[in-house]
Amino acid sequence: MWTIFLLMFLGIAVGRLLRRSRVIAFSDKAVTVVIAVMLLVMGWDVGARPSVVSGLSGYGITALLIAVAGVAGSVFGAFLFHFFSVRRKKPSAQENASCEEKGGAA
């Protein structure tokens, strides 16, 4: 676990040092390729295990419900965040009146 944190912070330090380098432009594409390869290998590993593949039908409904609940919760949380952040940023009638008296726009 500590190795993962150490590597992450080391990566942050190297990224800060090389932020104006051309290596950073290449790293975005490299990260995309590495993630795609990792997903392929993970799927390969899951597909090679007979116990997982045979129990996949039982996991299907549960996995679908968890995914739908996760998406619904994220959408609801984003809606609440948007609702409260936009509501707080709207200027009040008193602020509008004071801006108009000064010749400014709200």
Detailed description of the structure:
The longest helix is centred in the last third of the chain and has 34 residues, at 56-89. This protein folds into 2 domains: 1-54; 56-106. The chain has 106 residues and is mostly helical. The protein has helices at residues 2-17, 23-48, 50-54, 56-89, 93-101. The radius of gyration is 25 Å and the shape is flat. Helices cover 85% and strands 0% of the residues. The relative contact order is 0.04.
Summarize the structure.
With 106 residues, this protein is mostly helical.
Keywords:
2 domains, 5 helices, single chain, flat, mainly alpha, 106 residues
Low-confidence stretches: none
How big a fraction of the residues is strand? under 5%
Structural class: mainly alpha
Q: What is the 3D form?
A: flat
| Portion of residues within helices | over 70%
How many domains comprise the coordinates? 2
So how many helices? Answer: 5
Distance between the termini: 51 Å
The tally of strands reads 0
Instruction: Give the C-alpha Rg.
Output: 25 Å
Largest sheet geometry: none
The average pLDDT score comes to 82
How would you spell out the order of helices and strands?
A: HHHHH
